[in-house]
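Exam review. A common question shows you a sequence with its C-alpha cells and asks you to describe the fold in words. Practice with the pair below. Do the first one on your own.
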Amino acid sequence: MMGSPTLEPRLIPLAPHRTDDPEARQSRKLALMSALSDGLPTLPAFVFQLNSLLAATPVNLKRVAEVIRTDPSLAAQVLRLCNSAFMGFRDRVNKIEHAVILVGTERLRTMVLTCSLVEYVGHRVASEDVQSFWQHCFLTAALSERLARGISYPHPEEAYLAGLLHDIGALPLLVVNSAESSNPESVASCGWGESVELERKRFGMDHCEVGHWIGISWNFSPTLLEVMVRHHNPLQAIEDPRLVGVVAAADQFCVRRGIVLGAEPPELTEPTDNQDQGIFLACLPQLKPPEAEKLAEMIETDFLHLIQLMEFGASGLFGGGIPQNPFRE
C-alpha cells in the first residue's frame, strides 16, 4: 500500500517466556531484527509534500488532490473512507476532489502517514493495542502542534509530524510480541508500554532504537530522527532541542493522563497539582515559570476539548476513528 508492496516479515516463532528471561529476550531480539530487515513498509516520497500542503492556511485542495492521484492505493483509501458507514454520507463519492473536501485535511494528514503502517501491522496485533497506540500518537501530534504555536516555534507542521511519528518504533515491538504464541500477552499485561527500560528487558531493544532504524530506512531528516531517539531525554537533543522538547512535553502530558500503549481511554478528571508546569519547564528549559504555567493551562483546556472530539470506534478506519485536530488555524 502506498508505494512498494509491504513485505511480510519473517518472524521467528516464539514460546511464552518470562520478560526477564535472557534466552527469551535474545529470541525476541532476533525476531525484531528480522522484522526490521525484511518487513518494514516503504514510506513514499509524497508523504512530506502532502504534510506541508495539508498544514498550509488555506489548504490548496486542488493541489492535494493532484498529489493523491499519483498513488492509486492512497486514492482508493480516501474514496473507501468517504464511502464507508463510518463517514455516513448519503451519496456515493467518486471524485478525489470531492473526497478531499469531505474527509477533511486532518483526517487526510493522518491517513497519508498511517495507511502503509496499518497494513504492516494488519491483523497480527490485538486491536486494542493498535487503537491505544494511535490514540497516543494522534493526541501527542495535536498537542505538539499546539505547543509549537504557543512557544512561536517556526514550523508547527513539523511538530505535528514529529509527534505523530515519535513512537513509531513501537509497532515492530507489537508485531513481535504478538508472534510469541496463539494467545500473546497484551501490552497491558506485560507492562512494557511507555517504559524503555522494560522494553530493553523484554526485547533487547527499545522503541527509540527501533524508531531510529525505521527513520534511517525512510531517509528522515536529522531533526525527525532526533525526536525518535531523544523524546524521553529531551535535554540531550542537539539538532533541534525545541522540537524535541515540544514533542517530549506533549508525550509526557499524555502519559501522565494514562494515554499510553495498551491502556483504555481514561476518565476525564481535573488536574490536582501543577505537575504539567514542571513537565514543560523540564522539557523546554528556555521557558520562564509564568510562561510554563500559561502553557499548562492552555494545553489542559485543549486536551479536554480534543479528547471529547475524538472518534474512536470499531467502525472507524485503522480499527478506530481518526480524530480531528480542532486546533488547526
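Now try the second one, then compare your answer with the model answer below.
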Amino acid sequence: MGTPVLAADLVPLVKTDEPMSRHTSWHVGGPAQMYFTPRDRRDLARFLAALPAGVPVLWLGLGSNLLVRDGGVRGAVIATNSALGGLERRSAESVYCEAGVACARIAKQCVKWGLGPAEFFAGIPGTLGGALAMNAGAFGGETWNHVVSVEVIDRSGREHTRAAGEYQVGYRSVRPPAPDEGFVAALLRFSRRPSMQSHEIRALLEKRKATQPIGEWSGGSTFTNPPGDHAARLIEAAGLKGHRIGGASVSTKHANFIINHGDATAADIEALILHVQAVVEAQAGVRLTPEVRIVGEAKP
C-alpha cells in the first residue's frame, strides 16, 4: 500500500495516526493511518486522484452508526462534514444537499421552506452521506424515498451524476452500481407542506429523548429490526437490558442501544454485540443483523 504524493497545500490537511475515538459517537477506535479533512470538492478530487489504487478509503460524517476497532484503520479516512455543507432549494419541491450536511439541519430547513415529509431526518444522528449509504430512517421515514439523483466521486477524483434507480435499495441497505464511489450530494424531492411547523419536529425529538439514551455515548441503533418484530423487544425479552461487558452495556432505556460508560474499548462493544446476537438467537431463534458498521483491525 503506497503513500500518496500530495500537493503542498493538501499536506497540512492530512493527519497521521489520528485517534478515531475523537471522531465517533461511541468515542472508541484506534488510529487512522491517514485522516483527511478537505476544504472543498477540489481538495477531495485532488486527494483521491493522488491515492494509490490499493489504499482503502473510509468515508466519515459525524461518526454515528460506526464502530472502529481498537487497532485502527488502514488507509485513508475522509471527513466530509466540513467541506460538503451546501444546502439549497432548487425548485418548488426539490432540495439540493451535499453529503456533509447533518440530517437534523435538513429537517429544520425543510420546515422553514414548507416541504415534507422531511421531519424524520431530525431523528437520524448523522450526515446525508451516511444516510444515503445505508438508507437511514426514523419516525417511519426513509432517506431513499426522497432521492431523485445523487452526485458521486470515484477513486480517480471524477464526479458523476447517477439516477436513484441505479441503486438497489432496501431496509437499511443500499447496493451501488459501481464500487469505490463516495456520495458528495443528492437532489431530494418533497411535497409542499406550508402548514408544517417547527413544533412538530420538537415533538418528535422529545419523544425520541424520552425513549432513547440521548446524550450518552452510543452508536445509535445497534441492530436492524427483523421482519415483523423489533430488535429492542427481542433483546429485552432475552433479559439483556443492562448487561455489561467491560465499559459497555445494553441501555436500560432502549435495549437496541449499547452505551459506552466512558471507559469502554471497541473490543468491549463488539463482544457485547456478539453476545446479544448469540443469546437472542438461542432464545428466540432470530439472528439479529448489526445496523452499525464495524471497521478496522483488532488491537494485537
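Model answer, second protein: The chain has a mean pLDDT of 94. The domain at 213-295 is CATH 3.90.78.10 (Uridine Diphospho-n-acetylenolpyruvylglucosamine Reductase; domain 1). Full marks require stating both points clearly.
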